Request: fold
Amino acid sequence: MNGDKNPLRELTPSRSASDSATLVIFGATGDLTARKLMPALYSLFCQDLLPGDFKIVGFARRPKTSEIFRNEIASYLQNLNKGSRLDSFLSAVHYHRGDYTLAESHVGLKKKLEKFGHNRLFYLATPPSQYESIITNLGTAQLAATAGGWIRVIIEKPFGHDVKRSGELNRFIARVFNENQIYRIDHYLGKETVQNILVFRLANGIFEPIWNRRYVDHVQITVAEKVGVEGRGRFFEETGILRDIVQNHMLQLLCLTAMEPPSTFDANAVRDEKVKVLQSIRAIEIDQVENTTVRAQYAAGSMDGIMKKGYLQEEGVDPLSSTETFTALQLYPDNWRWAGVPFYLRTGKRLPKRVTEISIYFKDAPLKIFGKRADDVKPNVLTLNIQPDEGISLRFDSKVPGQGGKIRPVTMDFRYGTSFGVDPPDAYERLLLDALLGDSTLFTRADESENAWRIIQPILDYWQNYKKKPLPQYNIGTWGPAEAAKLLKRSGRRWRRL
Amino acid sequence: MEKIVTKINTTYADGIPVELPDIENRLRSFWLNIARDSGKTVMRASTMNLIVIHSEREKYDNYQKILIDLSGHHPGRIVHVFIDYGSQSDKVFAAVSALCKMPGSDDRQICCEQVVIKTGSSGEKHISGAVIPLMLPALPVYVVLTDPRFMRSKALNSLYEITDKVIFDFFFKNNLQSAFKNMVKLSHGTAVGDIVWSYLSAWRDAIVPLFDGAAGKKYRDGIRKLKISCTDPNECYWVYLMAGWIISRFGWRFNADQNNFTLKREKNSSIELSVAREKPAAIKFETYENISLSSVLEDDRFISLIRQGNSILFEQPKSIHRPDVSLLLCDELDDTSTLPVYRESLIAASKIYEVIGEIY
Ligand SMILES: NC(=O)c1ccc[n+]([C@@H]2O[C@H](COP(=O)([O-])OP(=O)(O)OC[C@H]3O[C@@H](n4cnc5c(N)ncnc54)[C@H](OP(=O)(O)O)[C@@H]3O)[C@@H](O)[C@H]2O)c1
Reply:
């Protein structure tokens, strides 16, 4: 175990991938590559975190030379202001024209790769419909087999479309790659605050003792997007926000909040605990879906002083569509720690602002001793802000200075930007580096993904069978439909206003 | 001594113009600049979100001063909205500025962030969408309305939905009927407060002790007539509110017969209610001994209590005629109690208006 680890690496200040490695990006001319992957790679390069002998091979269909490909990359990286190392970075970039569906394209790729080192990381930055051809062809071209180096593959979400297809996809990939070669990327897990959830919980002795049903009243997780479907109406019609956000990002956030401490901070130990949380979530019976979930679509309205279209008017969207752009749900982890504590999840498009956070609502103090002012006492809330301002805040009650006994809630904020004087690294940077280093802690294992699908499957089935038309609507720029408020109101709670 | 350090830190009267989506970023850099320019520690304290909405330029201008005064006591984020119904425009203008005060001697400024939003009549539909994203999370949201017409605006409904308290700051000249109806309607969904109600706290404070103890109970049971009079027709709204307060607190019921309007107390004896416009503004309880409260004509900082001909002067910190709105607003922001005294008074006031109509 770990026999190939360099002992000198222990306690060196920064992690860098020391081996040589080649990253092959399938979908090199796509949006993800331009917006996320290349900027992250360039940033890692500027911090000297990439292997000394590092190559990038971009794979796509469009005919172009490596030179043209480099110029394109240069055009979008130039603005990043990272100093003058762009030429040096670009010299490691190559282009391979090919078609995923053609075996010979992969044979050609193999030839190209033979000139480089043995360690290879394949990044599937393509729509999932193409995973099977790419993986089959990588297998046929014997590119998945290790020959003196390591071979890993990164797969972008969504990992399947439902329980059945996610199982099929996993089994299919397993025919070519071993599970320990597969890195399912959920970029949320690369965010600093997401990683900090565990550190915060487990490294600070004061929180863990109260992190349970005795002290916690409920938990709210919000992933709010300001954008609409942004020209991806057709894709979104097939997906909906439950698949797009809840199945992966939100359930991951829930896992990190609710999981038991792992025995070590090792990839499998962490993921074992996450799977246990997913398995403990009480299955939603079909006849409970209506009571425990909310779905809705955004209706036309004003945002930033401009009237925006409603979902049903968006391009590529069926005017009678019942695809949800907002959902809220109530889940119960039925385990020793959380029995009876509801976890409320809400996510939607065209909400007032882009924000992701987890809020832990603690129970009221046992006795209301402040008489008339007792109503002013609000429960403590610990909020983990994931984006845009990564940080942590705690709301507690305090006496207003001066005469009288007024009590006001105040918040104590900790922001990454201000406390450490640095902005946290981009999620893709962190995850690409982890994949190069062979650390899969922040990647999703097959059983995690399948268990997450299992949780939402009854909801998907119910929604599919009972297509409400029209779905409840919410105005653009508001925090969702009235039904979402009712979901919490039933138990005397309300959503945190963001 | 408190002194105002900075009113608006820019050459623009409303602050630095900014596009709506950039407001948050602009405010962030703004703080850094204020700290650097002033060379002093700037405390960015936040206890609330306050939205003030106007339809009259004059009130908007007056509120600039009120908000600066308020910033030291209730720091937070202020969104100051002006909808100019004289213009057809739907363009939304936004600007950011800081309202700062130096409350102590330790060189600390306390600053409120102010976002100004202006538009014409067709831009009303953009207001909620522009304001809601600006709310600081988890802090209370207060909305001050200086024109009753905003209560009818469908476009502002989503804003009211996230509001903890709507505070009215208007005097009525006309349309009292619909204003009362809308105020009561709004009070079902959110807590409500009223600057006029705060003015009345001086009067309420004067009245309350009259009914303390056994003697007070005797007075209360002996009241045969309640007469309230106001002087200025624009301000007569308070008469309804005052009557509404007394009636709802004492639990008097309205007599169903509208032609002969009386109030009934528990043991079914009735009380006559009359309202009038005459000088001085006064509240008069007719009992076996007459008690009346009235503002003193020569000096309206005082309310006088006349009891069997002997008058006692109460010096009041606030006057009904020369209000310091920032202090009154402070009272409203401080009062987060869930006791619906104002709301019940308002509902009773609206009933009184229904039966007795305008005060002539
Ligand atoms: N964009 C994002 O921000 C984002 C975020 C999270 C996850 N994702 C996931 O990342 C994946 C990629 O998204 P994207 O937005 O980058 O997609 P995209 O812009 O549509 O790019 C698709 C890429 O695949 C290539 N391609 C398509 N068919 C091919 C074929 N038969 N042979 C060879 N190349 C082919 C295209 O190259 P040619 O045009 O040259 O053929 C293009 O480079 C998706 O699974 C998406 O869900 C994206």
Q: What stands out?
A: Residues A 27-32, 35-36, 60-62, 99-101, 125-128, 130, 156-157 surround NAP (CB under 6 Å).
